[in-house]
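#onboarding

Welcome to the new folks! Below is a worked example of what a typical request in this channel looks like: someone posts a single protein sequence, and someone else replies with the predicted structure as tokens. Don't worry about understanding the tokens yet, we'll cover that in week two.

Example request:
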Amino acid sequence: MSTTRKLQHHLTPSRIALAVCLSLSATAQAAEDVQKTEDPSLEVIEVTARRTSENLQSVPVAVTSLSAEQMSQRGVEDLADVQWYSPNTTLQVSRGTNSTLTAYIRGIGQQDPLWGFEPGVGIYIDDIYIARPQGAVMDILDVQRIEVLRGPQGTLYGRNTIGGAVKYVTKKLHGDPELYVQGTLGSYNQRDFKIAGQMPLSDTFWAGFAYGTFNRDGFGEFKNTGADNYDKDIQAGRLSLAWYPSDDLSFSFMADRTWDDSNAKGGYRLTPSLVTGQQPYGNVFDSDTSMPTDNSVETGGEALTITYNINNDWTFKSITAHRDGDTDTNIDFDSTSQPALDIPALYDDKQFTQEFQLNFDNGNWQAVGGLYYLDGEACGVFETVLGLQGLTVENGGCVDTKSLAAYAQASFPLAKDLSMTLGGRYTRDEKDADVYRYVYLGIRYPHDQPTTPFAVQSDFADSATFNRFSPRVGLEYQLSDDIMAYGSYTNGFKSGGFDMRANKSVNPDADAPYDPEIVDTYELGFKAEWFNHRLRTNVAAFYSDYDDMQITVQRAVNNNTDVASQVLNAGKADIKGLELEATLAATDALQIIANAGYVDAEFKRVDYFDPNLGQVTDVSDLWSFANTPDWTGSLLAQYNLEAFGGDMVVSGGVNYRSKTQIFEVPSMLDFGSVTLWNASIAWYKDNWEVQLTGRNLTDKEYRLAGYNFAAVRDSNGNVTGPGLGGEDTIVGYYGDPRTVSLSVGYRF
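Example response:
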């Protein structure tokens, strides 16, 4: 057995946890031993988890914050890479494109990117909510930091943050002229370029910009066409303006745009094709396709923030924003050269949001409250092309959402060193949905001219209103200047809606709205700094009572020539877990960073309507939580030294995720634990920055997602009949292989 495989074999969850604990114990002892001769300390981390700037250690919320410098030195290229450095967090690229995000925190999320379905983890650019997952895998471009808030954030962040929230905080304008350029070359012909700058146009008016282009050849290819698979062709740009007409009044404007023209991804077949006889390829990044690989995702928006300091205690803020997105993609589900199961799709969404916010801080009391309004429209159409049967099923429609919320939260002292937090949010969502599902003879694509359908399986319009008051109660106790303990109860609310794939021909109740998700989370936390601010340990324990969990289920019916879709309110589930984040400044030169997360998530009841049996059954004993490994963790060492006339930072570490189930129902797609080793060397001199980064150094093969429309099998696993489209469609999508890159940057 090779050294690498031995290391991977021995890195079980218990050993990872033990290694983290022993490392912290040993380094803490080392910190005491050298304290008399050295005085290193950790930097203060500012976060905006409670909608105002605060020290991380004083915020009674489980938060991970990564600065731009930290992400660069750890090789974080986009938002999905952040998952490795936040416990109990899953941020992954979805199945068919480079820029659609699948997000889960503490077992709660949403993996179906179809329009009309809403995420369980809120994504924000600064204070602007991003309603759709398309385009949410943002590359790191002129960013100040990224924050991951774990647990329900409904009081201050509102709708669809029952799992948590991820904030992409852009770099602020500061009024001094600045220009930065960076170029990157790497494996698979990686060619990235970034440029960002800002300058004052007057004493009170400043402007800034950022632009990046991110390019890479494919990790594999479509063997029957020669097109790249898993390539990257993304551009992103941002314009920022700031005007300060007085000391108390400011205007901030931002516009951003992202264009993803990477090829649509092809999946890796885990089983031989029943149609072509194609065997699984040797390279998991190779595929076949019967479709064009054209793919286009364009997203962006504009935001205006007005801030007025009424006096020393009160601040008023208005945040007005518009965002929109368009997707045109082709996904070959069966990944063969025959059109057995092809899905071309168009998505179109837009949203307008307005928030009025009032902040109060007099040194003892801190409070924030406001009103929030969202007007959004999500539309789309996709075809299920069953070429071997000569049929096309077209699903389409729109969902209009109007949401109004009022919220307030205050923290105030009860006694010396003891404070209390009370908050709540009332949300009212109104949804209007139009859904159709038509069957056509022959092969049809979304841009084809309308024709008369062969059959109508669904065609309805309906409306529903959902409302909820979500409270938060917390107690915080300051044991000393450097140690704080807290306990909290938070209620989370995710709106209900309509199944945009509804097939009334096999499920007569498919047009009925599904209910909201509700989660009650109890959390105990402990934040401390030790040895004169040289060791930081933040610990959280949580328990969540999860009701009416929304799960999308698709089953092949009618002799595997059709699909029955339903969104289940899956009954009840319990989630409990632990999280640890620790940072040690062992010496002036050596820093050790660790995190570990454990989740125990269990369904208590799942009421599932089986269209083949025509009845509802409880399948809770057969289901497990998707995208929720029991264990997550990372261990990173960072060493600073002087070299070659400049400063050098050498980083190396290991990231771990235990066995993961991709869907709630176990399948062949589920995969074992993942251990990734990364390293980087960064060198700084004057205005120059040079960094060599290696990611997934052992070239670990690991699956992120997939499609499972399997053939009919007997108890021994032998195929006895075809699945949907006459195929055995079990295809996987994979994380990046080993890559090495060299970046050179210069600040003018």
